[in-house]
Amino acid sequence: MKRRSFLKSLAVASCGLTGCLHSEEENKRDVVSGEFMQGKQKVLDYELDRLAESDIEVLRKDGIPSIDSPSYTDSYSNNFSDNIVFGVNINGDKKAFPRLILAQHEIVNDTIGGENISVTYCPLTGTAVGFFRGDTELGVSGHLLNNNLVMYDRASESFWSQMLGVSFEGSNRGEFLEEFDVVWTTWDRWSQKHPDTEVLSTNTGYARNYSNGVYGSYNPRSSYYELSSDTLYSNLNSSDRFRKKVKVLGSRTSTSSYCVEFDRLRSEKIVSNEDVVAVYDEELDTGYMYKNSKDISYDDDLVVNGEKQPVDNPDLERVRGYEAMWFAWYAMYPNTEVI
Amino acid sequence: MMKIVFQNIRKFLVIFFAYLTLYLVSVRDLSLTRSKEVSFVLVPLSRMFSSKGFFQFEAISKIVIPPIAFLFSPLNLLIASCLSFLVALNVVLVYVRITSPQSCKVSDSVGIISSFPALLSSAACCGPLILLVLGIQATGLILSVFQIAIPISFIFLIISSYILSKRIE
User: Euclidean distance between the first and final Cα of chain B, in Å?
Assistant: First the structure.
C-alpha cells in the first residue's frame, strides 16, 4: 500500500513537473472566445504555405506569458536599464509600455480608449506593433517566423505573424489584423508630450526581474543588439545592404512595401520616392510614412501644399508600418523598396 | 558513497553551491537589479507549475536585496539542487579516485565527462544565446538537444556516480 501511495504521489509530482496541471489563469483563458477585428489587406511576398512550412517551434504555447490583466501607474520606475517605452494613444487614452517589461511578456491584452487592443513586441526583430483584437485575446505561440513573434488568437488558435499581420495557419488563415500606431520612443519624450499618460506597472502578476534585457542592451548596444551580430535562427531571405540590426522604418500597402534607414531619416527629416514620403518626428524620435500625393516638404515642421501641418497627423493618407531591424524587414519583405 | 561525501564535505559544499549559483544565474532566477530598495513580491502559488521553457518554471516570489534579485521558483530550485548534488558528488568521487593509491586513469574520466551534460543543462535556458556567442545558428535539431539536456544530465550523473563509487569501494 505504501509503495502504491508513493508511486501515486510520484505520478502526481511528475504531472506537475511536465506542466499538465492547469493554473486558474490558464482555465480562465480557455473561455475567451469571439471574433478578431479584420484589417486591411497588406502585401505578402510569400505564399501562406511557405510561411506555414517555415515557422519553427522554440517554446511551448504561452511559455512566454502575455499580460492579460495589466495595471498602470503614474510614476515610471527608475529600475530599468533603458528608458525605451512603446507609446499608445487611442481616443485620447495614453499609455506607455516599458520595453523591458514587454521583452519578457511580448503581448499585453487590454482595453484602451474603449477599444480591445493588443500591444505586441518582439525582442528578436525589434518590432512593436499594435493590433485591434476584437473579442479574442492574442497569446505567444512559442513559434518564430524569420525570428519574429508568431502570435495565436485564443478563440480559434490560428497562428498570426506579428510583422506581416496575417494568419498563415488555422481557421483564420489569410485574414489580416487591423493595426494601430505604437510609438517606439523614450519615457522622457513620451511623458513630455503626454503628461497625463499612464505607464504599465511592474506588478504584472509574475515574479520577474525587469531591470535588464534578456538579449542585451540598446544603450549602449550589446550582445544580440550589436549592429552586425547574427540572428538566433535562420531567415527566409537576407541582404547585406545594411548591417543586420540597423533600424529601419518600414510600411506596406496592399501592393508594395517600403523602408528607409532610420538614421538617414533622422538626419534628413524627410525622405521620399514617387509613392511614399517618410517624415521624422523630432519630438518623439520616431517616423511616419504617408502617400506621396501632394507637394510635401520640411521646414522645422511638415509643409503640405504650402501649409505647415503636424508631422504625426497631416492631411495625408497614412501608410501604416513600424520600426524594425533591417534583417527582419528584408526577411519578411524581400521585394521591399528602400527609399 | 555518503561516507566519502562526509569525509570531503567542504569540497562537496563548495562545488554544490558554486554549481547551484551558476545554474540559478543561467536561468535568471538570480540576477542583478538596479533597484535601491529591499522588496518582496508574492504571486499566486499556481504560477509554480507554469513552464517557462525546457524544465524551467515560473517563480512564486521575488526577493530584492540590492543589488541582487532572487526569483524563488520551487521547481527550478529543486531541479538545480538535485543537479548540483549530483555534480558535487561526481567531482568529489573523481577527486577521491584520482588521489587514491590505486587510481585507474581510464575510469577517472567517467566522472569528469559525465559532468559535461550537467554544465550543458544549466545553459539549456539560454541555449540559443550560447550558440550566438559561438557563432552557431539554432536549428530544430539543436533546440531538441537543449530540450533533453537536463534529463540526460541526470542520467549521466547518476550512472557515473554509481560507477565511480563502486570502483572506489
Answer: 9
CA distance A108 to A120: 6
Least Cα distance to A28 among A205, A207, A200 occurs for: A205
Q: Give pLDDT, residue B153.
A: 80
Cβ contact B135–A79 (<8 Å)? no
Query: Which residues numbered 4-43 in B keep a CB inside 8 Å of some CB on A?
Result: 28, 31-35, 41-43
- B59 CB neighbours in chain A (<8 A) are 206-208
- Contact, B85 vs B139, CB < 8 A? no
| C-alpha dist (Å) from residue B34 to B24, B45, B65, B114 | 19, 26, 10, 38
| Cβ-based burial of A299 (10 A; exposed 0-12, middle 13-18, buried ≥19) | exposed
B44:A24 CB<8 A: yes
Distance in angstroms (rounded) separating the CA atoms of residues B9 and A187: 52
Mean pLDDT for all residues in chain A:
89
**Using one digit for the tens of pLDDT, what is the confidence trace for A88-120?**
999 999 999 999 999 999 999 999 999 999 999
Among B49, B71, B132, the residue with its CB nearest the CB of A19 is: B49
Nearest to B31 among A209, A224, A229 (CB): A209
Rg of chain A's alpha carbons, rounded to an integer?
A: 21
d(CA B73, CA B48): 7
Least CB–CB distance from B46: residue in A23, A212, A234: A23
Residue A249 C-alpha from the chain's centroid: 13
Handedness of CA A230, A236, A239, A244 (dihedral sign): negative
From B95's Cα to the closest Cα of chain A, the distance in A is: 33
pLDDT tens figures, A150-168:
999 999 999 999 999 999 9
| ipTM of the shown complex | 0.80
Instruction: Find out whether A202 and A77 touch, Cβ atoms under 8 Å.
Output: yes
> Which H/E stretch holds residue A118?
strand A115-122
Whether a cis peptide bond, with omega within 30° of 0, leads into A220 is: yes
> What are the percentages of helix, strand and coil residues in chain A, rounded to 5?
20, 35, 45
3-class secondary-structure state, position B139: coil
